[in-house]
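Chapter review: from sequence to fold.
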Amino acid sequence: MRVIVQEAPFDFGAEAAGFAAGRHDMGAVVTFTGIVRDLKGGGLRAMEIEHYPGMTQKALEKIAGEAVARWSLGDVLVIHRYGRMEPGEQIMMVATAAPHRKDAFEAAEYLMDYLKSRAPFWKKEQTVDNAAWVAARDEDEDALTRW
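The token string follows.
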């Protein structure tokens, strides 16, 4: 299990290939990458993500450990960036490896739902007109109820 919180961009292809390499005992590898999405009609200049380093790392390690305990997983990778990112840049990556696809998909969805709604990150959208903190969305919170 690897959890990385970093400012620098990451190479999704290299991370995915490295994660999947040599997985002869795993029947499924699931990957997901979150990307900074422009606002409807454009206008997003950047997304700024802030966090408390020690707290964030521990929280992400805890949820990754819970996924390993809950599903039959061979491995988990979580990468989450902080700092300033422009539309089209990668924010985060989740990868899960499991003997069977159901566990790999469910664990990846669980991790993504957690990262979207409960991970200790604070996001600020900088538009052409202003900057504003992003509020939690009801649908993101609702997604957690299935777990």
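Two observations follow directly from the output. The chain has one domain: 2-145. The longest strand covers residues 90-98.
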